[in-house]
Protein 1
Amino acid sequence: MTDSKYFTTTKKGEIFELKAELNSDKKEKKKEAVKKVIASMTVGKDVSALFPDVVNCMQTDNLELKKLVYLYLMNYAKSQPDMAIMAVNTFVKDCEDPNPLIRALAVRTMGCIRVDKITEYLCEPLRKCLKDEDPYVRKTAAVCVAKLHDINAQLVEDQGFLDTLKDLISDSNPMVVANAVAALSEIAESHPSSNLLDLNPQSINKLLTALNECTEWGQIFILDCLANYTPKDDREAQSICERVTPRLSHANSAVVLSAVKVLMKFMEMLSKDLDYYGTLLKKLAPPLVTLLSAEPELQYVALRNINLIVQKRPEILKHEMKVFFVKYNDPIYVKLEKLDIMIRLASQANIAQVLAELKEYATEVDVDFVRKAVRAIGRCAIKVEQSAERCVSTLLDLIQTKVNYVVQEAIVVIKDIFRKYPNKYESVIATLCENLDSLDEPEARAAMIWIVGEYAERIDNADELLESFLEGFHDESTQVQLQLLTAIVKLFLKKPTETQELVQQVLSLATQDSDNPDLRDRGYIYWRLLSTDPVAAKEVVLAEKPLISEETDLIEPTLLDELICYIGTLASVYHKPPSAFVEGGRGVVHKSLPPRTTSSESTESPETAPAGAPPGEQLDVIPTQGDLLGDLLNLDLGPPVSGPPLATSSVQMGAVDLLGSGLDSLIGASNFVSPPAAAVPANLGAPMGSGLSDLFDLTSGVGTLSGSYVAPKAVWLPAMKAKGLEISGTFTRQVGSISMDLQLTNKALQVMTDFAIQFNRNSFGLAPAAPLQVHAPLSPNQTVEISLPLNTVGSVMKMEPLNNLQVAVKNNIDVFYFSTLYPLHILFVEDGKMDRQMFLATWKDIPNENEAQFQIRDCPLNAEAVSSRLQSSNIFTIAKRNVEGQDMLYQSLKLTNGIWVLAELRIQPGNPSFMLSLKCRAPEVSQHVYQAYETILKN
Amino acid sequence: MIHSLFLINSAGDIFLEKHWKSVVSRSVCDYFFEAQERATEAENVPPVISTPHHYLLSVYRHKIFFVAVIQTEVPPLFVIEFLHRVVDTFQDYFGVCSEPVIKDNVVVVYEVLEEMLDNGFPLATESNILKELIKPPTILRTVVNTITGSTNVGDQLPTGQLSVVPWRRTGVKYTNNEAYFDVIEEIDAIIDKSGSTVTAEIQGVIDACVKLTGMPDLTLSFMNPRLLDDVSFHPCVRFKRWESERILSFIPPDGNFRLLSYHVSAQNLVAIPVYVKHNISFRDSSSLGRFEITVGPKQTMGKSIEGVTVSSQMPRGVLSMNLTPSQGTHMFDPVTKMLSWDVGKINPQKLPGLKGTVSLQAGASKPDENPTINLQFKIQQLAISGLKVNRLDMYGEKYKPFKGIKYMTKAGKFQVRT
């Protein structure tokens, strides 16, 4: 007797009959009827009309019947919300049942009924169940919070369930912990900003303990959660790694891969010299290999991840090439992935083996696979230089087989080999030409034409060959047409005498008879070039081409680092960050590998911390991309700026300092200095400037040459947000000129050129005084240091915070925006020393409500040291008094826009805390002046 | 987490759907059908398919596609592992996992699926626990149930669920206490034209059938544990003990389970027990080709090779084959072009061979590809890696169990290129 009987129907009408049975007095009949209803439901029949009758069966002590009714309810409650209310009472009662199985079942089912009215009643029972004495009930309740959150997030927050859930992370039962983590992770996914899973060493320890004891699925949840944690130093990273490694021997492949993710991420923090680092590398290989003996679907996911892992750390699997050899009955998706990894692992040591395999694959049945194998041979040639010759001869062997698609694919890759090793393998051209007629795919035809054009001087009958293609010009695909046009122009430039007719023919075909704008445009360009300046044409068309490299099929390093954090997820299968494909609406937090911090470092210098801090924090000052864009779009980002800004500068400077502007406009060209204005034009000689500031600075004359304090460079624009361009920098003020010291690093795979920079309007009118000069193109992994001179004559707009600077940087790839806070002391001018009398008068004159008091803590310097140190940053001590054993320093400073700030600094010998009183007519600067004091004195 | 599950037969009909959250319309499967159409064979349907709002992760087992629908970022391996677990559970419950069987037991299937996931989170996937919750159907039980009105749903809290040994239920009782272990090794190998080994590795498993009363604590030690450097254990194995002493110490689940699986890939440890001599040639001019293969034993440690079958996918241009075997039976399917030869046992004194001619279709040119030969065989009482169990001890219970260990070597993916 099987369940198939539930599907049999009678002529009378199924629903009618079921209804009668459901209302039967006999328990047995009732149960059979419910079973029939469920069976109909599973195959998609609509049995919702029976709702009241089925709900009536719910009040039973028969567990199976209860479960069946619950199943039914979950499916149909949504369509009958009013009826579903009838069931609430039973649920609430069941949540009090002495049997924990029933309590759990009730709370579980209730969470699955997605009807608002029911969820209201769910809160109380759920609260009880979360604190139930039985862990089985607690763990079910934990999941129920996630369900409820999915239906009504606000309700969950209002009821405080999230906090209860967080408490469950410290539960004594590992399964409860695992489920709480899983539920929190799911909730966190819809609220990426909320800090639901704030992990600290204590909670990590609890998770690691639970990891050993919970089920395989729980282990996955916990491992994925661990992967989001950033250990504070290498010691903590190592101890977590040690406790995670046993998971590599788990039978469940998802556990293994999640463990691999944690290890790959935390390894980043370990020093490579560590013995443990080497041990860990060795431990990673066997589990990855084992994943490949699993079912093909698992293999596929594993291979996609291994692809990332071998790019990040090729050393792990470098000896395991053979496990990636393809079996002929592997599914095609596994074959293609294996092939890709074989190429990534190919090296001089194993290339012979790889080539033999690839050649074998090229004779298989599956056309797609054969093509990819042939292509792989080409990639090997490009990757392993020593093997190029062998690869070429293998390809020639394959061409001899005369299998059409093999020949075509081989020609396409040989073209790439020519691009990588010019003037080396041209002897094979003759063989290639023999196969000209068999080429019927556009890509192969285009490749062949390219070869003929590129080596026209060595092919005697190049003109004939190209002419033969020209006959059917209009039937060719655009790719071939474009290539043919270029090839014939090349031929003409190399052998002008014999081919004039041919080139005219192709130019007229391309420009007059073609509807394709690309083709037409290219035709016209060539025509114009050839007719106006054949020499220039030669330089353009026959220019030396950059070599191609195997890097073209690597993943960009920044993306790779991000993907490593997503090992085992869908992102790793698609090789795209989740932001690129996860459904919109849910913001996705970028993940990045932790920076390498050793325990000794992390304790001592807080100043370096910002550089390593997560990039998200850095950029808090940026307003939303949208309105910044609006501001910056009307800025001209073209090749900048040296001319006009200087001209306007003198006008605007007039408002600031008449003398300065007068001098500047009068004799600015003759290298004379206008020291009062910080806005020193870029062409000013530095020695002159320093001499002058010395003159003004009669009292001390020491220490000024060193210039003001310079903060270490911090990362302003992480590579992840700028398509591989990383910008770090700091501000300096040296003898009257402000500059922005930038360090540009190219972390992308392509060369960067055409840099330009522009500032948004800001509080003090800071603007670049010269264009951003990056002389040579920035090649991948290269770094340049640039000092960009700034002036303060740009347009002024008050920013919040006052010292916020929004910057746009452009290169050949895109325009990027970031913002940074500049320290105010770069704006303290060299003539900020006030006359004594003047100081007294001004101090009295400024109303008392403009006075601001600050405390500078933990500064061990004495009055003299303080004074000289401040002086080097243009804060001048005008007078010094000793009152009741305390040193009182009276100081003044002036900002580039002419604002004076007066200061009284009280220093008690032996007490590292100073009192600073600031008076200024523009009190909003006081806070920032105080910060400048702090930075200067503490560094 | 896992949103829904659809079971689809190879004809492309959805014959069962189960939703753990809100209902996802079955039209989502249209994307799957598209992919299915594009892939020439069922095996080639990609396991991860993205659709505008969902992801479809599928496994193909027993001619059924198990398609899971997910909506958020979920580890794909997690889902695929779970699907395999579903298949295993069905097989465990019903003996076979096939469309008619699933349809026959639809209510049990539904109940089991409901217990396996809650809101998409795995709940109970150990078959021991599931069987306590929902008893597998047996003819006897169905009869008894119909008479007495009792059910096949347990009304007790599954005891194993929360204990420290979740894989074992309490109160197990047997009159005959027995523990059997099968060491099964599969050789995956690629042999090239000239007979030398391209790759060879051993996938080994130790499957156990333990029927012991109470809470026995077992230790299993090996003569040569060093062979095992790449192992995956059942959760019951105490990892620390293995790390330090190379001993397997565990409280076994009740019934059948896989104790461990291992992988030996060091080439010198993998002996190749058979060889194939082949001569398959076509001539440019003639439409007839020659075909000759011989199978012989190589390194068998004195054991005999049984259950040998040879199969080979012939090139498309082949019309028919006219072959005579020295033993066994052979067949050529002219539609799929699959040649199979059931050899049986290899007699080292008289090597089995298959010889004859191949005729090509009229006008077909000489085939480009060389057929690959697939080999299946079995060797009893031998673990080809040389792995040997030293002893099995039981602690914690007083009775004397009956113990047994069996070895077997099989061909896994054993391929000979020609």
Protein 2
Amino acid sequence: MSGVESTKDMRKGEDVPGSSLGIPKADDFGRSVSKIAVAQICESVGYQGYKESALEALADISIRYLCDLGKNASFHANLAGRTECNVFDIRLALEDLGDSHGFPGASEIGNCLVGSGIVKEIVQFVDTKEEIPFAQPVPRFPVVRSGKLIPSFEHMNETPPGKHIPSWLPAFPDPHTYNHTPMWNERASDPCADKIEQARQRRKAERALLRLQQRLVCNGSTGTCASSVLDAKTENIQEAGSNPFLSAPLQQGEKDVSEVVLPAKLSNEVSKGDHISLLDAFVPAIDAMKTGPSDRLDGEKTFLPEKRPSVQFKFKTGKKILGESLDLSLQRKGERSSTFLLPDDERDDKKKRAEFILRQTTEYPMELNQS
Amino acid sequence: MNPNPQSSDGKHDDDSALSDFLASLMDYTPTIPDELVKHYLAKSGFQCPDVRLIRLVAVATQKFVAEVASDALQHCKARQAAVVKDKRDKQQKDKRLILVMDDLSKSLHEYGVNVKHQEYFADSPSTGIDPASREE
């Protein structure tokens, strides 16, 4: 039984260091060895098993007892003016620790050191208790590892740089580890070429942004695009001669403009009510295109025609008409663009805001690129 | 101190007893290994090349631990006897003597060491109070 128990204790002791969670501490080996020893002592007393926490506590206390004995003994030795302890120091230390519990002869003063009650108790203990050697051979610990030293001047076969430095001192580190050498930028830089390259990239970004704007404008309103373009066309034609602000509004039928075929929905609406101008019909759509879903004109429902109408309009020049003229008009004449819409105060404010934003984006594409 | 000639003889007897004891220590192997004792004594500043003194310290510690363990064993047996009085059928199960934290703390309390096991559940207002003052 005792053999089995001791092996169980052994296994317990061996398992603990391996299965311990967390960082292994420096004292783990000593603690586990003492746990095994304490378990053996408990077994000799009569215990058949133990709880892990209780055994750990008892092992910790026994280690503390051991350390306290050593401290007290060295204290007494130092008190007597010695550095090495002898049996009397140990006996005094034992008495100090046993004071709280009491031992025979504690109250006697002038007692001879060798006749101490405690020592007698220990003698009794040794005589009565059977000898239980420790279960496993314990190696010498802690293991002292020889440190890795920096080679000396002699080792490196170097002569020390100064006469005041003896050769047995550690050598200096290699000069490349502490000398600072300047660093050169290998790439040749041409400031002119860089500026040109920068301007080119900016122009590229501008063009790409413009194209994106056109696409958005077209997708926003499939029908109004044509009408607004048409209006812009008429204005452009007019402006050739006179100040557009002072020119009289065109009378119906004065100018030969091509008819825009209204989509089915719109034509139905128009036929129902009175004749409304082209602009009136498309104002809400223009609003939607410019400022997103905002308040409607007199509670009118905004709708965008699903089907793209077939439009006929005169082309001024071949390239990039659809969105470009609109944007160009916005760019060049900020205030003018409001003339091809109904003069309504709220809408003008919104329009102005939108035009400002658009101008910002086209004039400063760099910010857009960076964001 | 004591000029009594009898005590001087006694002193010599004690002297020889002590030296005999120290000699006998070499034969006795304490349960706590020498290396462990040497390590912890070196940690606390105890300097001694003599092996007998190391053994003496080891034996003293062993004696202390054995005393604490035997006190705890008494508590454990007392507890089992109390339980057996109530239920006879538990006699079979509780034959094993196990070192538990409760018994250990009770026995260590007499030596002036306060060891308390952390309670898992705080399910009553009296949790964590010193068991002596707690009403059972």
